[in-house]
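User: We ran a pulldown and think these components assemble together. Before we commit to crystallization trials, I'd like a predicted model of the whole complex to look at. Sequences follow.
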Amino acid sequence: MIRIVNLEKAFGDNRVLRGISATVGRGEVVVLIGASGSGKSTLLRCVNLLEEPDSGEIWIDGVEVTARGVEKHLVRRETGMVFQQFNLFPHKRVIDNITLAPIRVRGLTHKDAEKIAMELLSKVGLADRARAWPHQLSGGQQQRVAIARALAMQPKVMLFDEVTSALDPGMTGEVLGVMKELAADGMTMIVVTHEMAFAREAGNKIIFMHDGVIVEEGPPSELLVNPQHEATKDFLSKVL
Amino acid sequence: MSLLIRLNEFINFELIIRSLPKLLDGAKISLLISLCSVVLGVTLGIVVATGRLSKFWLSRGIASLYVAFVRGTPMIVQIFIIHYGLAELGLRLPAFASGIAALSFNSAAYMGEVFRGGIQSIDIGQTQAGLSVGLTPFQVFRYIVFPQAFRRVIPSMGNEMVTLTKDSSLVNFIAIAELTYRATLIASRTYEYFTMYIGIALVYFAITFVLSQLLSWLERRMGPYDTNSEPGKSLRR
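Assistant: Here's a predicted model for the assembly, 477 residues in total across the polymer chains.
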């Protein structure tokens, strides 16, 4: 489904990604863990080309999205992303946040787009807040709307970038709950998170990153229980 | 009562009433020039702002130079360049068109800076979120960044509009029969300078006052969403 080959990315002298190769199978939930600055968010943002890699390849569904001449916005239609800071559009009501892209990008009618939006809002438990403004919602509710907004484009893969880091503990659960349901529905997901319980429960594979390289990867039952490398052990001893 | 009698010595009310039709005609022209220039100024201002924020160095350079030139030269000189200067080069515009062109070009520079500030104040996360759902960069600007920036700059844009309306009086120097021009004409004939200029000062004030009220109404209606206000409803301040 997704294949990343020898990806490199530097910001000035800072080499954030130093030769990353990884694969994500269809319906797989891959959890990226690692300390701040290990490059996991940058890797995630390379997948939907919010960051342009310096070299290497990313293939999504048999298409090389890093190839020259690829229209970035066409790639991004297929890759939903949810951000740490929610980034809902504050000047649009909840429902219009969700229908904007289906209408403007997919060319759906308002009626069809709203039908899809309402289904997604029900799915994330917020059907009654469709007409609300983002600032009237709690953080957890905003994040669930953001998930619905990304899903509305029916992406092939969902990217989650520390989506619970800005939330109170109480609200973290409701967002993780939605993500677990999504995983159970068979959505392909790449999740950057510090929530080890989520990684253990919902992840098919955990990738541990350190200083811009993948140090170790494996199923949660192995990597979390029996880490092989010092850096992994060190990191896990701090977060578990 | 005694004050009114004293005022009567300085202000010729009878003359004002007699000149009213002419002054109102002039006010109409002033309003028309201001309105056209505001609309063109805002439109061109958005172009200037996008130029200033462009990733192409040439557009950035041209837009910056333009803003620097307009800000660094007197408006009256700009008006003369467009009306008399361009005529020498073969572009002979009617005074009315020259006036609107000069005011619009001038205003565009200031409006451009206002919009640039507004656009830059919108969080980068908004752009990223827009891009991430597959919108093109232009669609992100059109549907996400610009609407939010516009709401934020309504107060400073309003200031610019009021300034422009007042500055429209400068076009009297290229013989457009607007409010100030007519007042000067009547005053020089009757020697009632105080009366005429106080009179049109009040007319300008009335226009800008109404404009200010309209703008604060707009601001209340469309105020920023990043406060705890209920969008679409009045803010209680």
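Chain B touches chain A through 24 residues (CB under 8 Å). That may be worth checking against your pulldown data before setting up trials.

User: Thanks, that helps.
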